[in-house]
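Lecture 7 notes: from sequence to structure.

We start with a single chain of 283 residues. Read the sequence below before looking at the structure.
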Amino acid sequence: MGLALETIVGYNDSLTGSTTYDALTPNSNQSFTVRYYQDGTSAYLEDIWLAFAAHPGLISIKSPRLHDDVLGINLAATPLGAGSGSADFNPQTVLPGFIQQKLYSSDVLSVTVNGTASDKAVGVFNVRYENLGGVNARLYHWNEIQPNIANIVGIEVTPTASGTVGVLGSGVALNSTTSRFKANVDYAWLGYQTSIPVAAIVMNGVDLGNLNVGGPGDWDIDDTGDFFIQQSITYQTAHIPVVNSLNVGGTFVSIADIAASTAPTVTLLMAELKNRMGTPVNP
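Now the structure, written as C-alpha cells:
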C-alpha cells in the first residue's frame, strides 16, 4: 500500500479585512489540490490548526465536492488569551480528532481566511492517503510500535522559521545538533515539544515519502508530546512515522510561524525499536 501523510501549510501575511475571504498561499512544493490517489482507496482531511497574529478570525476549506462551495468547512479561532490583548494561544486546533472529511482525488480545495485588516494568518491541515502512487511512507499503528520499543530518546534540533510569515524555513537534519542515533536502527517518531509556540513543525525525508509530515507547534506538551500515538489511536490507522538511522542526515525538520524568523528548540520524542519494521501494509 502507498501510505502517505502530508501536512499542508498555507499563509497570508496581510489580510484585507474585507467581508470577502482572503486566499491562503500554500508553501513551496505543496498545493491545495488533493493528490491523485489509487482508485478503490480513500483520502481524508483529518485535522486543522489555525494561527492569527493579533485578532480572531476564521478559515474556510471548500470545494463543490464537499458540503458546499460557499464556505464549506468554516471554523473560527482566536490567538487572544482570556481577558488580555496578548496573542497567547497560537496555534489553535479548530478541527479536533475523531472528525474526518473524505477528500476526492484531484479535487481543488479553496482555502481562505477572514480576519482583521493587516493581520497575519497561517492555516495548517493534515491529509492522509491510503494508497498514493509512488509513495510508501513508513507509517505504523501504535500496537505495532509499542511492543517493539527498546528505549526512548529525545533528539533536539534548532530549526528557524522563514523571514516570511507562514513560510517553512530551511530544514535542519535530524543529526544536526547531536549524533546519537545507533547505526542502522529504526526510530519511531512519537511526538515533540517546542521551547516557544510556532504555527507548524514538520519532518521530511525518504522514509516519509519525501512529504512534509507533522503538526502544530503547540505550547502544550499534552497536545504534542505523544502526537502521533494520539493520531494512531484516534483514527485507528497507521500514523506513527519511522525513520532509519541511516537516513537521519537526509531527514529534515522545518518550522513555519506566525512571526518571522523565530528559532525554537524542538525536541523530538523518538523510540529506538528493537527490530526493524517491515513494509507497511495496513492503512
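The mean pLDDT is 95. Keep this in mind for problem set 3.
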